[in-house]
Each structure stands twice: as structure tokens, then as C-alpha cells.
């Protein structure tokens, strides 16, 4: 599903990632951990083709994403849903409209959009908030909206970059339980996090980065 083969990413002379090799299989739930500056966000940005590695090869499915032409990047990104710590919702659109935007970009019909958004908002339990704007939502509701936007197009992979960072512990666990359920459908989840309690409780695979290098890869790991 995802393969990094000797991937290095430099910004100027500084290496954000250095000779990183890893493989994530379809349907896995993987935590990417490490201190600030370890390279977690850089790894995720490479996976979305926001940035390209300086050297090395990155495979997603059967595609070498370092060789995808710029015109084909939007089509590639349909395979990936992304959840951010700061939600990145559009303030001038309602919950329904924020989630619908993903499908509009994909060229879905109004009927398809209506059905798919309703189904997804009910799934993440915020259908009753569909006509509210982001400023009217709690942190947990905003994150559930962001998750709905990420999964409404039925991506193969969901990338989550510190999705619980700004949430209280109870709300954070609700978000994790939702991601866990999405993973149970066969969706691959790759989550960068500093949350030791969540990592240690779930006992999923843990890939640890340190100073841009992979320092550990444990099947049922903990956040040391």
C-alpha cells in the first residue's frame, strides 16, 4: 500500500527525513511518533504529494508518486483523506457544505452529494449540526466535521496529523474511536501524534522518528 525506499527530504542543507525506509500494508493503523522536528509532518506531506523527496522512492498502491505529473496530482489525492490538528474548515461554509466540497471537486451530482454527505455526517454523529458554521462548533464537533470531509469520498488512506492535539482528553478519545471504526472497514490509517496515552492504550504499530531517521518500528508498540 505505502512504501518508502531510502527517502531523504532536505530543506536547504538540513535533512527533515534521512534515508527512511518503511512499508505500511493496506488496512493497517500506524502511529508515527517522535519529538517536534523529527520529520512526522514531512512524511505526511510527501504522502499527499504536497512536497517531493530529495531522493528515494515512494509508492502508494502501484504508483511511484515521485513520478506523477502535476496534472494528475488531484486525481491521486482522491485516494487520500487528510485530517489536521487545526481542522482547516472553511469559515464561510456550513458543516454540510464543508464536507460536500470534497465531492464537488470529484464531480459528483447534487443527488450523490446529498446522499453521501448525509450518510457520512450521520456516521460521525453530527448530522444535527449540518447547518452550523465552524465558529458555532465545539472542538470535537469541528474535528468530526474534518474527519467526515476526509472520508466522504471513501479514500483508501486517511492521514491524521495530530488530530487530537487541541482537544480535551474525553473528546480526543471520541475522535480516536471514530478513526478506529474507520480502520475496521479496511481503510489504512496513518496518524502522527504526541499523545502517549492513546498510543500506549491502542497498542497498534508504532514507527518512531528521531532527527529525521526511523529509530524504531514496533508491531504493538508504545510511546517511549
From TrEMBL:
Q: Which InterPro entries does the entry link to?
A: AAA+_ATPase, ABC_transporter-like_ATP-bd, ABC_transpr_LolD-like, Cell_div_FtsE, P-loop_NTPase
Supply the alphabetized keyword list: ATP-binding, Cell cycle, Cell division, Cell membrane, Membrane, Nucleotide-binding
Which Gene Ontology molecular-function terms are recorded?
ATP binding; ATP hydrolysis activity; transmembrane transporter activity
Its main localization is membrane
Q: How does it sit in the membrane?
A: Peripheral membrane protein
Gene Ontology CC entries for this record: plasma membrane
Q: Which branch of life, at top level? A: Bacteria
Q: Which Gene3D superfamilies match?
A: P-loop containing nucleotide triphosphate hydrolases (3.40.50.300)
Location(s) in or outside the cell: Cell membrane
- Record PANTHER family: CELL DIVISION ATP-BINDING PROTEIN FTSE, IMPORT ATP-BINDING PROTEIN
The job of this chain, per UniProt, is described as: Part of the ABC transporter FtsEX involved in cellular division.
- Matching NCBIfam families: FtsE
Q: Record's family?
A: Belongs to the ABC transporter superfamily.
Q: Kindly provide the name given to this protein in its UniProt entry.
A: Cell division ATP-binding protein FtsE
Q: Which organism is it from?
A: Candidatus Daviesbacteria bacterium RIFCSPHIGHO2_02_FULL_41_10
Amino acid at each position: 500500500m505505502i512504501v518508502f525506499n531510502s527517502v531523504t527530504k532536505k530543506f536547504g542543507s538540513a535533512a527533515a527525513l534521512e534515508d527512511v525506509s518503511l512499508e505500511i500494508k493496506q488496512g493497517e493503523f500506524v502511529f508515527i511518533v517522535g519529538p517536534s522536528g523529527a520529520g512526522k509532518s514531512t512524511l505526511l506531506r510527501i504522502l499527499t504529494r504536497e512536497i517531493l523527496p530529495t531522493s528515494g522512492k515512494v509508492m502508494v498502491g502501484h504508483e511511484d508518486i515521485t513520478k506523477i505529473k502535476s496534472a494528475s496530482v488531484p486525481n491521486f489525492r482522491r485516494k487520500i483523506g487528510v485530517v489536521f490538528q487545526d481542522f482547516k474548515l472553511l469559515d464561510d461554509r456550513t458543516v454540510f457544505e464543508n464536507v460536500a466540497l470534497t465531492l464537488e471537486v470529484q464531480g459528483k451530482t447534487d443527488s450523490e452529494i446529498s446522499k453521501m454527505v448525509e450518510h457520512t455526517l450521520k456516521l460521525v454523529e453530527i448530522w444535527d449540526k449540518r447547518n452550523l458554521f465552524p465558529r458555532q462548533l465545539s472542538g470535537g464537533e469541528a474535528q468530526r466535521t474534518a474527519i467526515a470531509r476526509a472520508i466522504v469520498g471513501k479514500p483508501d488512506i486517511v492521514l491524521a496529523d495530530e488530530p487530537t492535539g487541541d482537544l480535551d482528553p474525553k473528546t480526543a478519545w471520541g475522535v480516536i474511536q471514530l478513526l478506529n471504526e474507520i480502520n475496521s472497514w479496511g481503510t489504512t490509517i496513518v496518524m502522527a501524534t504526541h499523545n502517549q496515552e492513546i498510543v500506549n492504550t491502542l497498542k497498534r504499530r508504532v514507527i518512531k522518528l528521531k532527527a529525521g531517521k526511523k529509530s524504531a518500528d514496533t508491531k504493538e508498540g508504545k510511546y517511549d
